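Can anyone check this?
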Amino acid sequence: MLLIRRTEKAAYDLFMSGLVKGTTHLASGQEAVAVGASAALRPDDYVFATYRGHHHAIARGATPEECLAELMSKATGLCQGKGGSMHLTKASAGMLGSYAIVGSHLPMAAGAAWSALLRGSGQVAVAFFGDGATNIGAFHETLNLAAVWRLPVLFICENNFYMEYTAIGTVTSVANPAADRAAGYGLPGHVIDGNDLLPVHAAVADAAARARAGEGPTVIEAQTYRHYGHSRTDPAKYRPDEEVQRWLERDPLSVARRRLEEAGVTETELDAAEERAEHSVAAAVDAAKNAPDADPAEAFTDVWADGGSAWRT
């Protein structure tokens, strides 16, 4: 979680200094969801994330250097500079992409789960999505079909209470937009503390075991909060100050540190972990800055299955 937080801070600083173009959606404050879930999954399980997906990419094995180089359009980036912040993908680690179209990846996760079921591989697919996606048709269509086919897929809502700039509660008829709707499809729905690593790990481990046993999908709603606005251009003035402060006091890094202290980890060991993360990310920034730029000649690679770009009927 420290590595993710430091990497995102580096990404923000690189944007502010003009070394990254476009936009980015930071997940600072939501690290416990990604790390707790990933720790409960097998290395060969599949993960699908949203455009706010830096934390999932790193949790599944992408390095800070790969991510920052991707944001800086470098040849050493995760997608050789063709994906950018919103499309971090590392298929070799089961990170099957971050998707900018809200809700679009839920059917993809169901498809990956169907593939695992067909092959008898024992893998599960996990779709991470925001609270706003629960009001998208793909959410309901996918939950229905996944339930009917008893697919080994987990639906994990990172409910940060704001769908871009609109409070989810002002446009949704139920208090818990993901978990409260699970029963309509005959699925279990759980609301958990998304800022505490241990409840996240326990919930995902149970759901994954249930899916591997042929018992079908589970809906998990992890309540969390983003520290920044929706994107780097959003000052997030629509959020009440007292609400922001209340959630900052529940920072997942602080919660994890208290957990470790209670488990007997010393302050010296914890400080050393922070120092290692800081040094790792500083080295990643330097490496990404000095990496070669992406080659425009590579723009059409990985687009067509046969590598060609000629029009075909």
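Reply from J.R.: I decoded it. The beta strands are 46-50, 95-99, 125-130, 153-159, 162-163, 166-167, 189-193, 218-223.
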